[in-house]
Amino acid sequence: MSALIEYNHVEISFGSTPVVHDVSFSLRQGEILGLVGESGSGKTTLIKAAMGLLGNNGMVTRGDIWFDGKNIPDMTEKEMRKIRGIRMGMIFQDCGASLSPIRTIGEQIIESMAAHQKIDVHKARETAMELFEKLHFKDGERIWGSYPFELSGGMNQRAGIAIAMLMNPSVLMADEPTSALDVVVQRQVVEEMLRARDVFKTSILLVTHDIGVVSAIADSVLVLQNGKMVEYGDAKQVLTEPKTRYTKELLSAVPRLRRS
After folding, report:
1. C-alpha distances in angstroms, 49 versus 24, 55, 140?
2. Torsion sign across C-alpha atoms 63, 1, 196, 153
3. What residues have CB less than 8 Å from 159, skipping those under 6 apart?
4. pLDDT tens string 125-155
5. Reported pTM
6. Residue 260 and residue 253: Cα distance in Å, rounded?
7. How far is CA 18 from the centre of its chain?
8. In what order do the strands lie in the sheet with 171-175?
């Protein structure tokens, strides 16, 4: 199967300082790829580059990021807006912080959908409820009518997944989606990402420092250290027979979530 998104010898710099060095990997349809490593290893920078969210000081200085036959670093902001949120969705580390505290989840869903297509309130609500049901949300009505501060951190994170999936994107970028959650809610979030993959055939690029989450969800793994590739391959192989000392140290340092 051909790659849905492909990084070829990517270097990313902020100002004149390279922070990601010669990174290459690909993501196929329906694949979940875990990007793992310590803080500052370049994980989040890699997914921000694909979303065009590096900011004014950051840029891809070498290599290519191919998506749907186009090289993302060569695209204009106008062209990126046609991809971001529609073809590529994103789950943030703290979805609650990215939501407006003075608008209900339902109002923010309507706004998100209206940014990409003409849609009325009733259709937006119907689409959201169908999605909540597919993701096994038992309290969709309450979520729709609630403000973020009325929901737990875990429920806000789960709502963030739903909002990211509203336009049925081909790729979902997940930036540390479980790091601020307790173990029980972590499992719920992991199960919902797996459900999104299974129901919508969505590919997921998962950024995490937690090898335990990767062992519970990923098909393949890329290990990063100081912006450089350390190890890349099938998740089972990397997690059970790591080839590098750094990967072995990561495996020994983090408790694992087991697949149910």
Report:
1. 13, 9, 33
2. negative
3. 95, 99, 105, 143, 148, 151
4. 888 888 888 888 888 888 899 999 998 888 8
5. 0.86
6. 22
7. 23
8. 88-91, 171-175, 203-208, 32-36, 220-225, 228-234
